[in-house]
């Protein structure tokens, strides 16, 4: 099996990055983490990646006058490390259509909601404000429209009556750490196949519904 050389793009603490690095330690995982790239020199994830023995690079968006220059510098890093597949994990820069086209079908993201609900920021706060009973996270291909790409995998968590944005966010984050490695393995391992806005996953099985609330 060929393992696809994968870069993780981060801007912050990198807990999803850690989950991906951990999963890719298994030699049968279809991706190997070849690079962690941050647009912020102070991102906490950089130290964690180095400690895990993964090469890191910083392309600081502030040292580039425009988006094209910033992305060209990122592209140079990706090429220099022989990267074939890219995961965004808390990467807080908007990518241009040109960059996304270059990585078409090889660029995925994790978003902390059940898309297409709650695109954008502050998803947990907004889920509470809307009173949803089930919330969650989504791994999807990246397209130029924000948080709108074909969905590879989703995980749902219940919303509890006494949840705050923090407690709900922590429950979703835990689900993210399981879902992102799974989504990457589907996409990099060739089990997920894009068909327009839908993704077909070979070998998917039905399962019982998650109902929320759950009573004693
Ligand atoms: C996660 O909630 C992810 O879904 C969102 O940004 C957050 C990044 O957290 N895109 P971390 O840096 O992976 O801990």
From TrEMBL:
Family matches, as CDD domains: FMT_core_GART (cd08645)
**Active site as annotated:** 111
Supply the EC number(s).
Answer: 2.1.2.2
Please provide the Gene Ontology terms (biological process) for this protein. Answer: 'de novo' IMP biosynthetic process
Q: Can you quote a single GO CC term?
A: cytosol
Which residues of the sequence carry a binding annotation for (6R)-10-formyltetrahydrofolate? 67, 92-95, 109
Q: What is the documented function of this protein?
A: Catalyzes the transfer of a formyl group from 10-formyltetrahydrofolate to 5-phospho-ribosyl-glycinamide (GAR), producing 5-phospho-ribosyl-N-formylglycinamide (FGAR) and tetrahydrofolate.
So what family is this one in? Belongs to the GART family.
> What is this protein called in UniProt?
Phosphoribosylglycinamide formyltransferase
């Amino acid at each position: 099996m060929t393992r696809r050389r994968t870069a993780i793009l981060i801007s912050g603490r990198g807990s999803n990055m850690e989950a991906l690095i951990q999963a890719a330690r298994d030699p049968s995982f279809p991706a190997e983490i070849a690079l962690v790239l941050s647009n912020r020199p102070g991102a906490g994830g950089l130290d964690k990646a180095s400690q895990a023995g993964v090469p890191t690079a910083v392309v600081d968006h502030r040292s580039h006058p425009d988006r094209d220059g910033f992305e060209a510098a990122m592209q140079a890093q990706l090429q220099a490390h022989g990267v074939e597949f890219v995961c965004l994990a808390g990467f807080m820069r908007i990518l241009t259509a040109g960059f996304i086209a270059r990585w078409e079908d090889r660029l995925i993201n994790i978003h902390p909601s059940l898309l297409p609900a709650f695109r954008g920021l502050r998803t947990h706060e907004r889920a509470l404000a809307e009173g949803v009973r089930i919330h969650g996270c989504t791994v999807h291909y990246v397209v130029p429209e924000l948080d709108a790409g074909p969905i590879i995998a989703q995980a749902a968590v219940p919303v509890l009556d006494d949840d705050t944005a923090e407690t709900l966010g922590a429950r979703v984050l835990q689900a993210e750490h399981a879902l992102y490695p799974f989504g990457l393995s589907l996409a990099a391992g060739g089990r997920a196949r894009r068909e327009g806005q839908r993704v077909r996953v070979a070998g998917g099985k039905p399962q019982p519904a998650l109902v929320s609330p759950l009573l004693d």
